[in-house]
Design goal:
Structural class: mainly beta
Pfam families: hemP
CATH architecture of one domain: Ribbon
Oligomer: single chain
Distance between the termini: 36 Å
Helix content: under 10%
Strand order of the largest sheet: 1-2-3
Protein name: Hemin uptake protein hemP
Order of helices and strands: HEEE
Organism: Celeribacter neptunius
Amino acid sequence: MNAYVTTISSDSRQLPPLDARSLIAEGTTRAIDLDGQIYTLRITRAGKLILTK
């Protein structure tokens, strides 16, 4: 059995995290376009994020 370990390192060139509520602004959903495909980002009543195609 082979085991692989992935190390996640802090890259100083990486952008800082965005606040999800600021992305959505008003309401609870926001459409996101990626290469012509539309995705919907939604904040649930429980405060969780759901991204659907």
